[in-house]
Write the structure tokens for this entry.
Amino acid sequence: MSFKRFKWFVTSLALGVSIGANAATDYPSAPITLVISVAAGGTTDIAGRALAEGLSTVLDETVIVENRPGASGGIANSYISRSKPDGYTIVLSYEGFNTGNPALFKEMDWDPIKSFTPIAEVIRAPHLILVPEDSPIETLQDLIDLAKESPGELNYASSGVGSIQHLGAEQFQILTDTQMTHVPYTGAAPGMQDLITGQIDFFITTPPTAISHLQSGSVRALAITSAQRHPAFPDILSIVEAGLPNFVIEAWFSIFGPAEMPADIVEKLTEAMEEVITSEEFTEKMAQLGANASYKSPAEVAKIVEEDLEKWETVVNTAGIEQQ
């Protein structure tokens, strides 16, 4: 993290202490709304609902899940940035929307750092490279060869512009010297439905969205974007085994609140989330879905955001993607 932004983060926490002295004494005393930045059914939604259930128990207060999809996570982020920083409205967002969008959009009414208070990282997940069940593509090399034979003709889905599905596919094209067509959706679940029906040629997405479809046989996985095979998918090749070792991708999903939240409320939320995320029940549930429970502190989340803003800006610039 740059000194300027780290200083801003520390100053914000200090300001939160002065504004919110003793604010957490009776917090929470009303239901908490956990906003999900995509449509129901995707990884963010699945993880968010599991987290909300655990938090309701730990905090002894109802945690309501509210999906606000659209604008590549921008609708949810804009809503949170304008919400009262009292701990009763928070968002579960993920890497692409918070750190990819700033390089892709000329105008946003929220700032990836200044508009939010980092609270906790929840999960990390590798990605599956998927094709429809009846696709002629049998291996990752088949996908690369076909894309080279027909530049621009193969299409791929994403949860929206700036999502890791989008930026990851762009990185894939850079590494393989191929050209494909992007089809953005409002979440992974609707993109998955079009993959199943054959309207989409391939989809790079996180396992929780795909696991039931893999089990039913409606989609096939060419590889998983991790260095080793995942225990939940022992028969799926790692990206290293599939022949593209530089394409290791693991996305993070983290909780943010509005800027200038009182530090004592942040601390109470963080402690509750750590208890849920590190619990055996949550860890096992995420592992069964192909994701990894991954608690990280507010300071760690802030540092990760800073680093990934630079990483995805490089990918966008290298791919020559025009700002929207």
In short: The CA atoms of residues 103 and 313 lie 5 Å apart. The chain has two domains: 3-125+252-319, 126-224. Residues 17-21 have pLDDT under 50 and may be disordered.
